[in-house]
């Protein structure tokens, strides 16, 4: 049987407050919860503290594989870069306080210099090393340039940082037009986490976006092959259910999380 653990990405129950997300994830059998920084900020702005969130996590026994996300760092320069870096540090500080190992670092939407991005990624990794968290270079299938495993790997390799890593996701592999076999170009240490979802037959690939993701086993993606490739490179970390569906956000979050975990297990443990 595969040796993965199961995580819930907060996006799947996005409209649920962060302390309730923790209760839902732990109450339905997940081992971890990926936390979005905007939910942390929402809690703090309403009078709460990051320490309260950490206490709730500790009480629940949930790990935090990643926090989500760092933006605008890839192609920033000059005074703008300094401002972006300060916001990245603020979010990395939250990640450390929450006990996260990685913080997801998003790519630009359009085209950008890979050399500059690699240089900035190295700097981000060094800041993270000093603070105690690892930035993970994410590729997104619907962006113009950094939309495949190969694109993320190019940035990682050009950065030259030993902690360089990325995030795998069936949706982004499919949407970017890459091959699932490209997973074999990575080592287990280069995978911060694997998100988990499935792909609907419609709309066409190039028209799909986050909202089109479906539950594992309800789509057309070869998830058994995907899982097999993860095992082949020695990855045994988290599979994290990541969906962005308004219909699910309007459903009881316990039901969504419970069904999602059952769907993941039915695919992975068959």
Q: Which helices and strands appear, and what pairs or packs with what?
A:
Layout: E1 5-9, H1 18-27, E2 32-36, H2 37-45, H3 50-60, E3 66-70, H4 78-98, E4 102-105, H5 114-131, E5 134-137, H6 149-159, E6 166-168, H7 170-175, E7 191-196, H8 223-232, E8 238-241, H9 246-249, H10 253-268
Helix pairs in contact: 1-3, 4-5, 5-6
What does this structure look like?
By secondary structure, the chain is an alpha/beta fold. It has a single domain (5-268), classed as TIM Barrel (Alpha-Beta Barrel), CATH 3.20.20.150. It is 43% helix and 13% strand. It contains ten helices and eight strands. Strands 5-4-3-2-1-8-7-6 form an eight-stranded parallel beta sheet. α1 packs parallel to α3, α4 (78-98) packs parallel to α5 (114-131) and α5 (114-131) packs across α6 (149-159). The longest helix has 21 residues, at 78-98. The radius of gyration is 18 Å and the shape is globular.
In short:
By secondary structure, the protein is of the alpha/beta class.
Largest sheet: 8 strands, parallel
Note poorly predicted spans: none
| Overall outline | globular
- The whole-number mean of residue pLDDT values reads 97
Task: Kindly give the count of domains.
Answer: 1
Distance between the ends: 8 Å
Structural class comes to alpha/beta
Order of helices and strands: EHEHHEHEHEHEHEHEHH
Number of helices: 10
CATH architecture: Alpha-Beta Barrel
Tell me what portion of residues adopts beta-strand conformation: 5-15%
Oligomer: single chain
Spell out the CATH superfamily. Divalent-metal-dependent TIM barrel enzymes
* Helix percentage range: 40-55%
CATH class category label? Alpha Beta
- Using only CA atoms, what is the Rg? 18 Å
Count every beta strand, where a strand is a DSSP E run of 2 or more residues: 8
Main sheet: strand order: 5-4-3-2-1-8-7-6
């Amino acid at each position: 049987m595969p040796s993965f653990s199961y995580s819930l990405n907060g996006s799947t129950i996005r409209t649920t407050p962060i302390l309730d997300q923790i209760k839902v994830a732990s109450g339905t059998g997940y081992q971890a919860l990926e936390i979005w920084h905007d939910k942390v900020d929402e809690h703090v702005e309403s009078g709460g503290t990051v320490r309260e969130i950490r206490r709730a996590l500790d009480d629940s026994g949930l790990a935090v594989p990643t926090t989500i996300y760092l933006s605008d760092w890839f192609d920033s320069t000059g005074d703008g870069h300094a401002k972006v870096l300060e916001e990245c540090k603020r979010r990395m500080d939250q990640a450390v306080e929450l006990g996260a190992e990685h913080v997801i670092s998003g790519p630009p939407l359009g085209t950008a210099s890979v050399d500059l991005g690699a240089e900035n990624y190295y700097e981000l990794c060094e800041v993270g090393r000093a603070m105690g968290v690892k930035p993970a270079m994410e590729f997104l299938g619907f962006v113009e340039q950094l939309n495949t495993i190969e694109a993320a790997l190019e940035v990682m390799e050009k950065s030259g940082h030993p902690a360089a890593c990325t995030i795998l996701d069936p949706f982004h592999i499919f949407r970017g037009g890459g091959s699932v076999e490209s997973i074999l170009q990575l080592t287990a240490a280069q995978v911060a986490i694997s998100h988990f979802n499935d792909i609907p037959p419609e709309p066409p690939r190039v028209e799909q976006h986050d909202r089109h993701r479906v539950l594992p086993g309800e789509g057309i993606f070869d998830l058994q092959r995907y899982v097999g490739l993860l095992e082949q490179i020695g990855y045994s970390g988290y599979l994290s259910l990541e969906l962005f569906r308004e219909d699910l956000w309007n459903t009881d979050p316990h039901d969504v999380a419970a069904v999602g975990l059952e769907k993941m297990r039915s695919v992975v443990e068959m």
